[in-house]
Amino acid sequence: MSGGVSILGVRHHGPGSARAVRRELERLRPDAILIEGPPEADALIPLAPGLEPPVALLAHVPGEPSRAAFWPFAVFSPEWQAVMYGTAAGIPVRFCDLPAAHTLAGDAESPAGDQDESSPGDEAAPSLVRVDPIGALAAAAGYDDPERWWEDVVEHRGGDTPFEVIAEAMAAVREGYVPDEREARREAYMRKTLRAALKQGFERIAVICGAWHVPALSGPLPSVAADNAVLRGLPKVKAELTWVPWTYGRLASWSGYGAGITSPGWYHHLFEAPDRPVERWLAQAAGVLRDEGLAVSSAHVIESVRLAHGLATLRGRPLAGLGEVTEATRAVLCEGDDLAVELIQRRMVVGDRLGHVSDGTPMVPLQRDLREQQRRLKLKPEALDREIDLDLRKPLDLDRSHLLHRLGLLEVGWGTPGQARGKGTFRETWTLRWRPEHDLALIEHAALGTTVAAAAAQQARDLAEEPSAALADLASLVERCLLADLTGALPAVLAALSAKAALDTDVTSLMAALPAMVRAHRYGDVRGTPAEGLAVIVRSMLERICVGLPVAVTSLDDEAAANLLKHVDAVHSAVALLSDAPEAGGNGAGPRGRWLGTLRGISDRQDLHGLIEGRLTRILLDSGELDDAGDRMSRAMSWGQAPARVAAWVEGFLAGGGLLLVHDPRLLGLVDGWLTGLSGEQFTDVLPLLRRTFGGFAAPERRAIGERLRAADRDEEAGEQAVDERRAAPAVATVLSILGKTSVREGTTGR
Question: According to the UniProt record, where is the region Disordered (predicted)?
Fold first, then answer.
């Protein structure tokens, strides 16, 4: 290749390489810069100065979300520093890797994905690299850790990266190596781009690429015809590219990003603090621990710095690395507390930095609308989990809730709902965490509408029209529409639900769908959302459940009975939320009365599974519909019943909690008497059911039941003790005189 070409082999996310590239470019003053990356993104390079890294290039195939790839950049990425230098100096900057149109044309199930690789100096997928170049060089230097070797040789040299030495080393490692098909195509396209730049008249060209590719771009090169033959006939798709925010957590390999680095926060620090990085790092770590209420003094910091430098000296390292700093942090700052070390790892070693793209970045309308909504609602995207509590009585919080529920329909999981603190249906708790893939989800759903509300409404309509949608799914969809305030989509969803409910003859499907419908019916009051038509559907579904339930409880095995019981409990809880006013033109019974009447009729049958019979008895007792619960329990526990059925009956009856046994001595006595009357073999057979039943009670309930039984035993023992006749004689004489008797013997004879 021409002498005017400089090939700078780098580690893609390395602060030492980034600093060295910047210095080398300032020395070379090239008239063109070529960078590894998809050439379709050349038009996006002028936007880079307005971005806040970490950011990534996103390439995707419209309409096929599984075909997408990211090219991430951090402030300490050598490619990013080359872009910043070129745009500031007015030098043309271009990408030279295989176009995304070809990269994404492969198997849709396994696209290129993140285009970086954890091995320094190579960006191909790990399975495509037959030789670990850094591992080979590290082993030759006597290192058992390739990462540590690269840090000592490159990252800790203060920006004095020996590019010529790296090139020679890579040439030695690649000797005899034959690239696979994908890698050969990539390197052929890099050479093609380089030749095109020379042909256009550029005389001083700097190429920034992974160190592994340096030998392929320098020295004796294949002919133009050979490279064209490699590139001929490549599959191609239409690809669109844009910038999206990225996170350091996504760069970390532990997060599932297989092309990442383990310590992006540490590398960011090394790049931003070239002087006294160890001292500055440990001082910041002390600040993080103090923010958490841990006592860390200046003396701790001084001693930890000494320890880190001492460890580096003992190990022959030019500078204390992350390993030495972490050991010093654990031993001195955290005093051996692994939880505190984990906090440093999460906050600093990985980091919570989230990038930002400018308003001028190409976005689909859906992305722009979400950005405006985030500003209006004061919800800033963040890389770490952030919990928020919403009071739905406040307009701002209600709008936030609507937005998060709408995004949930669009499969943008920015917010995860949690258990609201306190009582009442006017509160919600969410955990927010922004991930880069959310932008891809927004792009995927861009065709549904230009705003989040419009796209979510269309998504709801499309889901309602799915032929495979189950009744419970449609009921849940109605609930989600009301939570998201999508009144425009509600009529279509309700129509689909009504049609499905009219044809569905499965009682369990109706029972599974009813609770969501009842909750949705309440939102008209709680959220101020109109929910006309829901009451009619709810009552119709409940009526059909009441008609079909007596048949559904017949001939059930243990598993079927347990499943049906879950539906019975859910429907019972849902019915309690409904108004019990009689329906106009009805039979005079409201929803609650109709439901309890059905349960009462079923509970008197003799063919019920023990679990069902026991649970219905408890529900009716708690609802004030039974006054013979003790007699029912006595019959259920009679000696003619099989122990397994009795245990199932007890499980169903006590599923609502154990306080009933604490406050009703008769019921407790029945259970106790049945248990103590079992033989050893029978007790062993029913023990699993009993453990499951009583294990579900809260600890105070179990303790109270035990104390009741202990007290009953003491009373029984006291009653059996012998009577002191001398002390009882005056009382006996008085009673006999009242009865007209003169002696105990006479009283006995008279009796």
Answer: 106-126
